[in-house]
Amino acid sequence: MENKIVIVDFGSQTTRLIARRVREYEVYSEIITPEQIYKIENVAGIILSGSDLSTKDFDYRGELEFILKLKKPVLGICFGAQLLVRYFGGKVEPLVTKEFGSATINVLNSSNFFRDIPKSSTVWMSHNDSFSAMPSEFSVTAKSNNEIVAAFENEAQKIYAVQFHPEVIHTHYGKELLSNFVFKICKAPKNWKRQSILESILKDGQNIIAGKNVLCAISGGVDSLVAARVVSQLAPKKVKGFLIDNGLLRKNEAEHVKEYLINKAGLDITIIDARERFLGKIAGVEDPEKKRKIIGETFIRVFEEAVHTYKNFEYLMQGTIYPDVIESKNIKSHHNVGGLPESIEFKIYEPLRLLFKDEVRELGRSLGIDEELLMRHPFPGPGLGVRILGEVTEERIHLLQEVDNLYIEYLKKHDLYNKIWQAFSVLLPVRSVGVQGDARTYAYTVALRAITSNDGMTADVFDFAPHDLKKIASMICNNIKEVNRVVYDVTTKPPATIEWE
Questions:
Q1: Could you count the other beta carbons within 10 Å of the beta carbon of residue 342?
Q2: CA–CA separation, 421 vs 358, rounded Å?
Q3: Active-site amino acid positions
Q4: At 261, is the pLDDT very low, low, confident or very high (cuts 50, 70, 90)?
Q5: Could you tell me the fold of the domain covering 196-374?
Q6: Residue 389, pLDDT score
Q7: Rounded to an integer, what distance in angstroms lies between the CA atom of residue 284 and that of residue 442?
Q8: Which of 8, 32, 46, 466 is least enclosed, having the fewest CB within 10 Å?
Q9: pLDDT at 271
Q10: Counting Cβ atoms within 10 Å, is residue 478 exposed (0-12), middle (13-18) or buried (19+)?
Q11: Which helix (H) or strand (E) covers residue 222, if one does?
């Protein structure tokens, strides 16, 4: 497509988020690898992403030379900015005082990039290195409160760079900065509509699975439900779905999903009771990565055994979405993408692989899925297995299901549920002393998590009213005798992840 914005992915967790931000402006964006740089064409501008790499080990000099010869506007973000400094003869060195998280920057000079942006604003930093010497070709346009260079540019060559991340919601004027780059500097045309998501997925699916027999792995969550509806449109009457009850689902999850998929959606779904098998496999396992791998592989083994009587099933559909893909590469294994054995007999079809959660929900609306189901909070593939820290037992599963059900029902009753991106309970391997009535207790501690987010890539803490937290804690302790202490997790992402394991 002509006049697109290309994002060069150097490995940042937020690369996809940059592309998504650009598409929010109805401008087509595309992510490429450094190796694909030499093939880019018809671009309005180029963005160099961040990375967990060091420019001491990677300078990408040849790639940058090719990009600069195109004479198109360039924006370097974090690692991308450091690449530009090294390319033009400056120096990048480790910081004595690292910059991670929220920071204040001060704009020093007028600039098209900072047009209509306050002189002082909050941004999100995440870098170990900074600039000990700036190339003479660039002027510094902003510094942080630590007097560290936060932005620089060469207006004549239309090269701009920032040490912070404008793509994340924690940078207060990030959308405006990216908009300035896309429209005022690159002069990109509006040529992409979010409504085309479904059209694109169905078009791609026609070339892959149309008319073929497809097995659908249903987890009970929004993602697999929407993916199953996509597949049912592409391969009507050739779809067989399974929901494997691994014993790690939310309270009454399997029954609720079965009722909807069979009675309302008309999909051919079988519920497989594999609770004893899963719990037996993870018995005594405390390491979170081992739990994820075991649950993922057991899922496939159970699935394969369940369908051995069906012939000519070529594809296995999964509800993998983009944050799963990103985090499985960089942070932890996901059930959908991290636990599949190499010997799997099916080809994998993941129609939602390039979408964020809000895009999945929008797609679901266009497919006519009930709003109540679409707005369900995200649920991890390994289920409660990664919300029970330490060993997973039937007793602990039942305990957490009851706690979580009370928590979620309170949020729904008090109109808080849809204001929160994701809320859940975590059972800690910690017991503490308490008192109930006149008796001493020694019971479990439960942590509550509630975050706000647009995409799951970054997250802030939901700001509960103090009386709500007190009521929730009191309700849990009064109704579940095995719990005598409730704590609230007030950590953002980063530095934490949303899930605890």
A1: 4
A2: 10
A3: 78, 165, 167
A4: confident
A5: Rossmann fold (3.40.50)
A6: 96
A7: 22
A8: 466
A9: 87
A10: exposed
A11: helix 222-234
